[in-house]
Amino acid sequence: MSVSEKYYPAEPTAPVVKTTTIPGPESAKGIKSLGEVFDSRPVYFIADYEKSLGNYIADVDGNVYLDVYAQIASIALGYNNPALIEAAKSPEMIRALVERPAIGNFPGKDLEGIIKNVLKGAPKGQNNVWNGLSGADANELAFKAAFMYYQSKQRGYDTAFSAQENETVMKNQSPGSPDLAVLSFKRAFHGRLFASGSVTASKPVHKLDFPAFKWPKAEYPSYKYPLAENAEYNAAEDARCLKIVEELITSWHIPVAALIIEPVQSEGGDNHGSAAFFQGLRDITLKHNVVYIIDEVQTGLGATGKLWAHEHFNITPSPDLVTFSKKFQSAGYWFHDPKFVPNQSYRQFNTWCGDPAHMIIAGALVKEIQENDLVAKAAEVGDYLYGKLAELAVKYPQHIQKLRGQGKATFIAWDLESADKRNALLYKMKQNGVNVGGCADVSVRLRPTLTFEKKHADIFVSILDKVLSDF
Amino acid sequence: MSVSEKYYPAEPTAPVVKTTTIPGPESAKGIKSLGEVFDSRPVYFIADYEKSLGNYIADVDGNVYLDVYAQIASIALGYNNPALIEAAKSPEMIRALVERPAIGNFPGKDLEGIIKNVLKGAPKGQNNVWNGLSGADANELAFKAAFMYYQSKQRGYDTAFSAQENETVMKNQSPGSPDLAVLSFKRAFHGRLFASGSVTASKPVHKLDFPAFKWPKAEYPSYKYPLAENAEYNAAEDARCLKIVEELITSWHIPVAALIIEPVQSEGGDNHGSAAFFQGLRDITLKHNVVYIIDEVQTGLGATGKLWAHEHFNITPSPDLVTFSKKFQSAGYWFHDPKFVPNQSYRQFNTWCGDPAHMIIAGALVKEIQENDLVAKAAEVGDYLYGKLAELAVKYPQHIQKLRGQGKATFIAWDLESADKRNALLYKMKQNGVNVGGCADVSVRLRPTLTFEKKHADIFVSILDKVLSDF
């Protein structure tokens, strides 16, 4: 029995399409009504989560879609997973919701166990976690940890703050509020608050009208595909981009304290970087005393065939901070150097210090993934799916360009010939019962769950073939 | 039958103290053990939430404290509230946790009802809400709304972005990333991320080593007490502070797009501002086209005897944005001008757009508060408690100075003669079975729940009297 059969014995065996337009009439009515209390302009359809199961999401018109987007790449195991339902009904969950504790001051006696379950999901080389609330929050908390660490190296970890630091910080002035930068990459997405927004550079709409820190943007490699046929070009591209990184670090007008990067730039177009590139960044960051932060908000929790995508790269020594959210349900950063815990308490602190309710779900997710070997299974189904898509790419070379994600499980993407065609494809796939997402302007990204199996891949490929044949 | 009797028929009738030191031996063991996976240095004790009830929090040593701090001012109704337990067990809660939706793209059919229940808690003059995850997040989301609104007034609400804006924003440069400021106040606390941290100025420990936006800090009034005897001085203080605000707005080196202020500066020492001061800020912000943001993260949800503290001031017209979190359990900002919804979708957006699980709890809280008339009851018990404390202030003039919060329900604070004495009082209160918090350096702040009644006030006052008599 496959895992999807075990979890979801009643999972649909094919999509059901009942309306010719998406959203259908009931969804359209719901979107209009919801619009009175919420910005419903970006809503695709009104979901019916009672009727959604496993890899299928239902809407209020009775349409049932095979879901290879999984919210915004944020559902790990599928809808109505029985293990998560059990976790949601547990007495510790009720307490986490009703007695939402300020865990930094008044942790409950179950907190230690909750965190230990979360920690079972840590990347190789990391053994500690700090908890936050979202991907943007996780990245900004990591920046705080990075800045404190960077300054403590200059000052001495146990050295007290100077009177001047204590005084200037209250005026947002240096040296108490030092002018330090985080280096990121063009096309990156790390969130939409003000520091996370300052390192994001995928689309203007995410950032327009907001003040930003004047932080540098390096270039993320743009490879030629297929990778195997373009090894020399791509190695030169890595070298070119690494050189830019080092030049920015040594020449920027303020010190670069940290570098943040995605193992695959997701929102920015599913741009992949090589193991050599990521090791090169480790070497440069060590040489120049820059904190190395890997943002695994979208790539984490098994989606690429390793529990954490950067494990593909065997980066040595391990990156300093690894951030997570989305599919993990809880958010935060992993670390291993105890000096990322600040020298004084209350420096990395806030009222809630994370959210035990979602940490309980995260712990249950890690347990299910490990006990059912879901990362290896995702790798296997990903290879299968990639092979099928590579065949379709031969058949439809205009509509499936730059197929990428080989060897990265189901974390697969490709480009169409134009933004209009890409958008038309996303819509026509919905009309044929497949919920699929895009990224950047011309890319389609696949982000199915970890219970997406060959039978689901076959349905997806067959519908894609049908849609493209009419394109 | 009082509300606390209705909710908590088995609520303890007095604190139980079993250990001579706090934390007791079991808590100390738990703190040490927790410290292996979490920064447990700020932990007061390990709570036992199964055994906590109503206004009493239990720890793992069997101590049971009357809780007038309520986590960090973040529990509205008391522990193990039956109405919240029911909400936590509801099918819609299970779905919100297990199918955590990206509600901007794939809202469930229950979302509209969930938001409408939240909206029943809106302040007078506000009729719309945008949802976030924490107080810091709420404030930064409000800043985003404010910056977009401010720029749209310059540009025209429906005017498209220029090519130059679209290009410069990707480099964090003006005009796409404009240099705009948020004005805040000395001693303010608005959170600990980078923009929220830039408007926070209560203690260096919240901010040291983090880059900050160069934004101005005005002065929050420092009144003389009792207020009634110092009306002339305090009116002059309002005028002095308003003048500084206007001078900063007109002279700061970059435009001031927004102003953020707490109705009572809580973390910064329970500093109160008058209705005239808050109306003065409305007049100045209107005159200079500055967005007026009231931060009700700590003061909101009935704690001051109005549902929202700024309702004491009858500000006309209503403030533009009002932020909330903490006791509300869910976070976000209220608004009434539809132009605070940006002209394009995806400008105020993120994966989750809030957290339906905590929004469900928030809706249940609002319902309980309104059906049981808990705001009026808090006002009544607050008057009673203030009267008793005013008597103690005569008896212990050194230890109860500048008693404040009259007419603001139980949102009461006072100063001790020194930080050492204040810290000693907080500790001795715990040793006598009362969990109470401080703020700034020398202040004690009371933040009991809305089910804190005269019988609880009597116990609190009696223990405080005993502790102070030995002081």
UniProtKB/TrEMBL annotation, chains A, B:
Keyword annotations of the record: Aminotransferase, Pyridoxal phosphate, Transferase
EC number: 2.6.1.19
Reaction catalyzed: 4-aminobutanoate + 2-oxoglutarate = succinate semialdehyde + L-glutamate
Regions annotated as coiled coil: none
Keyword Transferase: yes
One BP annotation, GO: gamma-aminobutyric acid catabolic process
Keyword Transferase part of the UniProt annotation: yes
Gene Ontology cellular-component terms listed: mitochondrion
Cofactor: pyridoxal 5'-phosphate
GO-annotated molecular function: 4-aminobutyrate:2-oxoglutarate transaminase activity; pyridoxal phosphate binding
Sequence similarity: Belongs to the class-III pyridoxal-phosphate-dependent aminotransferase family.
Protein name (Swiss-Prot/TrEMBL): 4-aminobutyrate aminotransferase
